Every structure is written in C-alpha cells, then in structure tokens.
Amino acid sequence: MDWTIFKLLSWTETYFKKHAIDSPRLTAEILLGFSLGIKRLDLYLQYDRPLEEDELIRFKALIKRRIQHEPVAYITGEKGFYESRFRVGPGVLIPRPDTEIMVEKAIEVLGSSNGQGKRILELGVGSGAVVISLARACPGHSYFAGDVSPAALASATDNAGEILDRPVHFFRGSWFSSLSPKAHFDLILSNPPYIPTRDIEDLAPEIRLHEPGPALDGGADGLDSIREILDSAHDHLSPGGLVLMEMGFDQKEGVKAIAGGIKAYESVEFIRDLAGHNRLVLIKKRN
User: Fold this and answer.
1) What percent of the chain has pLDDT over 70?
2) Is 188 helix (H, G, I), strand (E, B) or coil?
3) Does residue 28 belong to any structural domain of this protein?
C-alpha cells in the first residue's frame, strides 16, 4: 500500500489514541509536518502525496519517541510562546500558555510606570520565554536573568540571540546568590517550582518523566522557592519595586501569609488566569 499523507495521518491518529496520547490528530500533524519540513496546512494541500521510504522511516522514529511520552516540544526542538517560537530541549522546562499572562501583566506594569530605563530581573529563566518576550515587547529597559541550570542558560542565551536585537544579561546562580548586595531592580519576575513534592508522581508522564524535576518540585507544601525568593527580593528591589510570580492555583492563602509576614512589602495582589484560577501574585515593596 502507498502511504499517502492523508492515510498516514489517519493511521497515526488511531495509533496515538491506543497509546493514550493527548490530542492525537494534532500531534500527528505536528510531527509529520516537522518530519517532512512542511507546514501543517501543506499536509492537506498535499494529502494524496505518497511518502518515500526514507520519509516513512524518519516519521516512524518520531512516533516511537512520542509513544514513550516524550513531549512534542522536545521532539521538534521548539515551542510557541506569546509572539515568538523558542528552542527547547531536555533539561529545559517547556513554556506553558498559562505563563503568557505573566508577560501581559509585566507589559501592563511597565507601561504604567513613569519614564524609561527600568531594571528587570527574571529568576529561573528556563528557555527565556518570559524575559525575552517582555524585552521584545518593551524595549528601552535593562533586562537581567539567572538560572542555576547550565542547560537552561544555554537555551535562553541562544533564544535571546535569535529573537532580540539587544542582549539580556544572563548569569548562573540560585535565585539571588550570584548578585551583588547593591544590585537593585524595579521589577523581579519568576515562575519558580511550586508543585508539592507529593504531587509530582501524579503529573502526566510527559512532565514527570521528561521535564527537569528541580524546575517543578516546590517542596513539601510547594512554597519553598516562593519563600526563599520573597525572603530576599526586598533587598534587591528599589523603593516601590514589584515582584511578579507565578504560583499554584490553590496557593493564595499560603503566599499571602508569607508576604504578609515580611514588613518590607506593603501590598499583595492576586491575578487570575483565563480559567479563573489565581495564577500570579504581584507584591509591592514599601517606598
């Protein structure tokens, strides 16, 4: 039988369903388009085209990887986020659509600030999706970003070089450990690990088996990294400066208690995502 694009998509969709792969048709389209080097739309413009033997072999290798629950983003080496596409790979957390609201809120914050030349820091930069998206949308500020992972820093540096006309200043270190005590910022961003350790085993295998554990595990109550960041952030914020962090949808009271116990902060605001869950916290340092 000649394996045309249409027949192969239909077979792969059924095969993925049997292996409990999410979005089986979409996944089949993405992987076949990637394998052939064409856009998803072109799959249907060429639906009756038969595949060559080498093309079938190449696509079969991708199918085998996917049924082992390797994330599609790791297979294709990229993930769309906000208005750009970011290179990702093993050892680097895959950017999530929910995190786009952090970029939107940060743009709003910078747009309402007086003057130019703000200093923005992201802690736990990962692929660089947040800080690079923000730097692209809001030029005219100085951007800094750190991560303890060499793989993440390499990914973020490469992405910044491809997407931005001006550099982000990257550094390696755990949270504030590599910064001078005199380093101050107007806005500190972070999407820290916030999943309770006991919940890691319940995550989808794509996450649990493939994405970097340290970027997910927030300790016994999921708040270890949030505590550590808030304990030190005020020492690196300018008067009136802001911390904007992602958090778990059920962590509002815990985060409020942590921030409320630190006298340097004067206000705590929670921002909901499109599903109505508390997803971000915005904390202001006293003037």
Assistant:
1) 98
2) strand
3) yes
Q: Are 194 and 251 in contact (CB under 8 A)?
A: yes
Q: Among 26, 43, 68, where does a domain finish?
A: 68
What would the mean pLDDT of 74-100 be, rounded to a whole number?
96
pLDDT tens, residue by residue, 29-81: 999 999 999 998 999 999 899 999 999 999 999 999 999 999 999 999 999 99
Token readout for 138 is: 């809001």
Residue 126 makes CB contacts below 8 A (sequence gap 6+) with: 92, 93, 95, 147, 152, 155, 156, 191, 215
pLDDT digits (tens, 9 = 90+) for 142-156: 999 999 999 999 999
Based on the fold, state whether residues 130 and 21 are members of the same structural domain: no
If one counts the domains in the chain, the total is 2
- State the Cα–Cα distance between residues 119 and 245, nearest whole angstrom: 16
Residue 126 maps to which CATH number?
3.40.50.150
Residue 1, pLDDT score: 64
Best CA proximity match to 82, nearest among 137, 144, 158, 153: 137
In angstroms, the CA 243 to CA 282 distance is: 6
**What's the domain range around 22?**
5-68
Residues 118 and 258 in one domain: yes
pLDDT-derived band at 116 (thresholds 50, 70, 90) equals confident
Amino acid at 105: K
